[in-house]
Request: fold
Amino acid sequence: MTPTISRFCDGCKKYARIAVGDGQVLACPHCHKEWGKLERVETVLDRCPICACRQFYTDKDFNQIIGFAIMGVGIVLVPKTYGLSLAVFALIDWLIYRKVPKLAACYRCGSEFRGFSIPQRLKNFMHHIGLRYDKYR
Ligand SMILES: [Zn+2]
Ligand SMILES: [Zn+2]
Reply:
């Protein structure tokens, strides 16, 4: 998987995703505003190439809404299938969840990093750390 960085561009306010490699200058595909420079793909998650922040968190890379929507359909079907659909949909939900890869995101600028090898030390989003970076967003 090619590593990509996704973020809301501070120049044009659009969400953009770019494929990245060693030594690449990062620029918005819409307005061409420069975001920063990526030195090496392996060290991206030590220091954010865009804002120089050193704190990242990891998350499952999928829209939670999809999971809720699947459960919602299961609940709607309950009266007809005597509850069996709930179990089936919970299983589908779980299977989808397991297949979902992880992403890493920068606490300060919110950039999302996909396709990078995520260091073990990265943890899920922690609210008290997020609060410290709120003013930058
Ligand atoms: Zn832009
Ligand atoms: Zn950042």
User: Anything to note?
Assistant: The chain has a mean pLDDT of 87. Residues 48, 50-51, 53, 106, 108-109, 111 surround zinc ion (ligand 2) (CB under 6 Å).
